[in-house]
Amino acid sequence: MSLDILKPVTTTSLNNLELSPDQVLGKNIKIHSLESGLPDLEDVKIAIVGITENRNSFFQTSDYELSSFRNSFYKLFPGNWGFQIADLGNLPNGETVNDTYFALTEISKELQRLNIVSIFLGGSHDMIYPIYKSYSFNKTPVNIVSIDNQFDFSQDEELISGRSYMSRIIMEDPNFLQNYTNLGYQSFFIAQEELDLMNKLFFEAIRLGKILDDVSISEPYFRDANIVGVDMKSLSCIASGNTNYLNPNGIDSRTICSLARYAGISDRVTSFGLFELPSTNIFHNLLSQIIWYFIEGISCRFNEYPISIDDRFIKYIVTLSDRELVFYKSNLSKRWWLEIKNENYIDNKLKRSTLLPCTIEDYDSACDDKLPERWLKAYKRL
């Protein structure tokens, strides 16, 4: 399927740029307009696609809402980025939700083929499912990070919706999901059965309180992710400006921008989706800044993936009471990795060893004869 299915950006968003300075984003990115059509993507590194599929949504996203976001985003000034960005317009709704899924999968596949990082805006959180499908066609392991106050496993009989899409992904056969990580869950929104399933599958989850206390602990989880999805219902009502959805405890505006920047810095993240968009002016301004920080993160990438251990890395060997762990620290980024040896690599066709992103705190724990929890879960997943 061609990208021609995408609808151009509304003329309202473009007309509002007339009085803006020449340096703003709206005058320095490639825009799919009614007048000029789809832009040439040969030198484009990042592409934005709007989604208005609302049949599984809590919040309704319309062309008007996406236009309001663009009015704000286009007036921001770019950083010292040195690459080209394109706004490809909006994906029209299919006759059924499955039709929209199919179209989104094809668009995501095409952007991957062109080596373009995708930013998807709008619709319900289950839009991660067709994005995941676009990766699974490559038959390589896929890692998903979800910023959400819930796990989105199946509730009752519903298998695929904005609240249950992860069950559909888990039940795919063949299955290429290697790891799923939830950042920012709130315990009172989680059923015990969901917690049990997370533990059974050795998936990872970080509670909201820990993220708010120290957002930097999230960075290693993004480092291995291919897809990052954000459910905007996880924001506090103060951050979203939405008085109709009263979530007093949620992610604040500074933290969500920091998370977006960490997602951008990850060399492996090639799809960034923001779903369930509240309809308030303050949120549209916040959304434009979240996207800005994600792009800023991409401009700061270290190009350390795939990891090639050489003289740019320092090797640390830690002897615990029952095993030996090997850590690596990058001289360039100062980030840490932990080696995991796969004793059954012939049977499951994975590498003999792999490197797990970690923190200096994991190294310190190992020095204290404590096995890092991330290492244990990753080892069991193998």
Question: What does this protein look like?
Answer:
This protein has 382 residues and is an alpha/beta fold. The chain folds into two domains: 3-299, Arginase, Chain A (3-Layer(aba) Sandwich), CATH 3.40.800.10; 313-381, no CATH class. It is built from 14 helices and 13 strands. It has helices at residues 11-15, 63-73, 97-113, 128-136, 165-170, 192-200, 208-213, 219-223, 237-240, 253-265, 281-299, 345-348, 360-367, 373-381; strands spanning 30-31, 44-51, 84-91, 117-121, 142-147, 177-185, 204-207, 227-231, 271-275, 313-319, 324-330, 336-341, 353-358. The chain has a nine-stranded parallel sheet. Strand 10 (313-319) and strand 11 (324-330) form a beta hairpin. The longest helix has 19 residues, at 281-299. The two termini are 36 Å apart. The model is unreliable at 157-162 (pLDDT under 50).
Summarize this structure as a short list of keywords or feature phrases.
382 residues; alpha/beta; 2 domains
Short description:
α2 packs across α11 (about 280-300), α3 packs across α4 and α10 (about 255-265) packs parallel to α11. The protein is built from 14 helices and 13 strands. The chain has helices at about 10-15, 65-75, 95-115, 130-135, 165-170, 190-200, 210-215, 220-225, 235-240, 255-265, 280-300, 345-350, 360-365, 375-380; strands spanning about 30, 45-50, 85-90, 115-120, 140-145, 175-185, 205, 225-230, 270-275, 315-320, 325-330, 335-340, 355-360.
